[in-house]
Write a structure and sequence with these properties.
about 280 residues; alpha/beta; Rossmann fold; Helicase, Ruva Protein, domain 3; two-stranded antiparallel sheet; 9 strands
């Protein structure tokens, strides 16, 4: 890792000791699984690349295992967004060691625009709560032009759904929207035993780098409509699944065989359908 900007890092109390003092147990209702292994947390930060002069937001820092690793990098600032007041109290102690670089925001990350928390260049690095990870990602993809990169941990199956190619088991609506907006790559698999409490499944760290050219809000909404219809009845032919939005006409204009199924279409074909649908709405 790059040299730390904080000279006091070596006197931080052990993370497990801090958790024990605060009796911080993971809440299933919040989708919490704490990643405590410092080596794995450091590996995740290494995968995030050079953080020099970057402003980092971490959603759901919990007891601060990954937070410590981010703060030990050359990141300019770190903002933790945490809904659990128990964790916020613990994180306030960590802030004492990094008073200039670490800020804590006690809010629900689903309910506001995270890009307002810091200046560009911004990145999000997070071990996301399992129960809201997909919803958070879709929110961020709608404003991807505000973000330089995302380094995120999801349940393995969700990571597959984000990164899968057409004609594969996990290719679906989330794959199309994610890869339409950004380059998506699985970087690392993490076993259940690395977490406390251990989940029932493996987790994956993925890298999402938004493309420089982003769709308008209207086009993004059109893509949401097209993919919701197409994958809402994924085993049906497109002429049936897209019937409610006059899909027969759209498919003809796009020169797409109406007997195909949604999982066979490429990102570019979905992009064309979304643009044709938007044009139709404006005509």
């Amino acid at each position: 890792m790059t040299p730390t900007k904080n000279k006091q890092n070596n006197i931080l109390p052990p993370l497990k000791e801090t958790i024990h003092e605060h009796n911080l147990l993971a809440k299933k209702s919040l989708g919490q699984h704490f990643l405590l292994d410092p080596k794995i947390n450091e590996q995740i930060i290494d995968l995030a690349g050079d953080l020099e002069n970057k402003n980092i937001i971490e959603v759901g820092p919990g007891p601060g295992g990954l937070t410590r690793a981010i703060l030990s990098s050359n990141a300019e600032t770190v903002t933790g967004v945490e809904i659990d007041n128990r964790a916020v109290i613990l994180l306030q102690e960590l802030k004492k060691y990094y008073p200039q670089r670490f800020k804590i925001v006690e809010r629900n990350a689903l309910e506001f625009d995270l890009s307002t928390l810091c200046q560009a260049p911004r990145q999000i690095i997070s071990n996301l709560p399992y129960n809201v990870g997909t919803a958070l990602l879709l929110n961020w993809l709608k404003q991807a032009n505000h973000w330089e990169r995302f380094t995120l941990m999801f349940q393995q199956e969700v990571a597959y759904r984000i990164c899968s190619a057409p004609n594969t088991e996990f290719y679906g609506r989330l794959s199309v929207i994610s890869q339409w907006i950004a380059s998506c790559t699985i970087l690392k698999q993490i076993p259940p035993g690395a977490f406390f409490p251990p989940p029932k499944v493996y987790s994956s760290v993925i890298q999402i780098i938004p493309y420089k050219k982003q769709p308008s809000p209207a086009l993004f909404k059109a893509m949401e409509t097209i993919t919701a219809a197409a994958f809402g009845q994924r085993r049906k032919m497109l002429r049936s699944s897209l019937k409610s939005i006059n899909g027969k006409t759209l498919l003809a204009k796009a020169s797409i065989d109406e007997t195909r199924r949604a999982e066979t279409l490429s990102i570019n074909e979905f992009d064309l359908l979304a643009r044709l649908y938007l044009d139709k709405q404006h005509s």
